[in-house]
Amino acid sequence: MDAKVSMKNILVTGGLGFIGTSLVPKLQSLYGAEIRILDNLSNPSGDLQASDGIEIVESDVRDFSAVREAVRGVDAVVHLAAHTRVIDSIEDPHLNFDINTVGTFNVLEAMRQEGVPSLVNASTGGAILGEVPPPINEEIAAKPASPYGASKLAAEGYCWAYAQSYGLKAASLRFSNIYGPHSRQKSSVVAAFIKAIRDDGAVTVYGDGTQTRDYLFVEDLTDGILNAIQSGATGTYQLGFGKPTSVNTLIDIIRDITGAQYSVTYKPARVGEILHTYCDISKARTGIRYDPTTELAEGVIKTWDWFAASRDG
Ligand SMILES: NC(=O)c1ccc[n+]([C@@H]2O[C@H](COP(=O)([O-])OP(=O)(O)OC[C@H]3O[C@@H](n4cnc5c(N)ncnc54)[C@H](O)[C@@H]3O)[C@@H](O)[C@H]2O)c1
Q1: Is residue 149 within 8 Å of residue 132, measured between CB atoms?
Q2: Which residues are known to be catalytic?
Q3: Is the CB–ligand 1 distance for residue 225 below 6 Å?
Q4: Rounded to whole angstroms, how far apart are CA atoms 122 and 206?
Q5: pTM of this prediction?
Q6: What's the CA-to-centroid distance between 119 and ligand 1, angstroms?
Q7: Structural domain boundaries of the chain?
């Protein structure tokens, strides 16, 4: 696709995290981009360091002047930094609001003041929409079930408003459940299960395991992010694989492909977690030529192998 946005200098907030660690090398290898990462080091993958072409600014998205300095001179921003856990947002909604909503506002306002034209904002599907019959799409009215979902919805609102008011290109990409390499610091389900199987020979499921999610391999997601930047998209796009998988099926898949033996304990479902979700990805397919290809079993093998080979594996 023809680039409508220059990819020379890119700021990635939260770029040291799970998704950033897969995205940054791709931005370098495919576009020769110079990368600046703004990250407060609260939850880094540990796999990405400053090097030729990667500058790391240790700072916080809540600090407006630091954000303004970081956006200066870049062509586009990928905003990944966030307070990412539903459960933590229920425990501390104020902190979640400050990081996710105020932090995103700071990024937008800094971009406006510095004349940076293009933003890709990491958002979420299920947590914003709440419990609705799947597949979810971009037209469904939002009813967030947690402060995390509400903070991301508010951030999307500011992205849209800044696009309308100031002509920024701002795409909010609603990620489904992302899994893959560089997720050792994550508590999301695939990473949590792999770590629990290896460390304890036992996994804990919250709920009865029939709850469904749309699991998307991180490399498919980062391809989608690149397409969104390149195409200068504005608006909201669901990025998932487009298929529901129950937690119990995921457990069977991991057992089948790894041959690992482990026990499964069921505990009560957690507040704020929705039961069933998967995405209709047709808008992203058309709008940003998004085309995820990694089946769950294939992605889980790659993730399992990465954990086995990684330094704390
Ligand atoms: N991983 C998923 O399944 C998933 C699903 C939906 C949405 N998302 C969104 O994608 C984005 C990236 O997620 P991830 O899985 O890579 O998370 P992550 O926790 O691995 O990475 C987030 C990064 O942001 C940094 N950070 C946190 N708070 C910060 C702050 N106040 N200032 C600066 N840096 C800060 C952390 O140190 C970390 O490096 C987040 O916005 C998240 O909400 C992720």
Answers
A1: no
A2: 148
A3: no
A4: 26
A5: 0.96
A6: 16
A7: 9-179+217-242+277-293
Confidence of residue 2 (pLDDT cuts 50, 70, 90): very low
How much distance in Å is there from the Cα of 21 to the middle of ligand 1?
Answer: 11
Q: Cα 254 to chain center, whole Å?
A: 22
d(CA 132, CA 64): 36
Domain 9-179+217-242+277-293 has what CATH class?
alpha beta
Does residue 37's CB lie within 6 angstroms of at least one atom of ligand 1?
A: no
The C-alpha atoms of residue 35 and residue 8 are separated, in whole angstroms, by 8
Three-state SS for 279? strand
**Residue 14 CB less than 6 A away from ligand 1:** yes
Q: Would the CB of 191 count as within 6 Å of ligand 1? A: no
* 218 C-alpha to ligand 1 centroid (Å): 13
Residues 105-121: pLDDT tens digits? 999 999 999 999 999 99
- Do the beta carbons of residue 22 and residue 222 sit within 8 Å? yes
What's the confidence (pLDDT) of residue 131? 85
Name residue 9's beta-bridge partners: 34
Residue 42 CA, closest ligand 1 atom number: 37
Contact 230, 294 (CB under 8 A): no
Pick from 42, 88, 188 the residue to mutate for probing ligand 1's pocket: most ligand atoms within 8 Å of its CB. Answer: 42
Q: Give the DSSP H/E element, type plus range, for residue 55.
A: strand 54-58
Label residue 203 by pLDDT band (50, 70, 90).
very high
Please work out whether the CB of residue 39 comes within 6 Å of at least one atom of ligand 1. Answer: yes
What is the spatial distance between Cα 206 and Cα 56, in angstroms, rounded to a whole number? 37
C-beta of 23 in contact with ligand 1 (< 6 A) = no
What's the angle, vertex CA 87, arms to CA 251 and CA 264, rounded to 5? Answer: 25
Nearest CA to ligand 1 atom 28: 82
Burial code (b: 16+ CB inside 10 Å, e: under 16) for 253-289 equals bbeeebeeebeeeeeeeeebbbebbbbbbebbeebbe
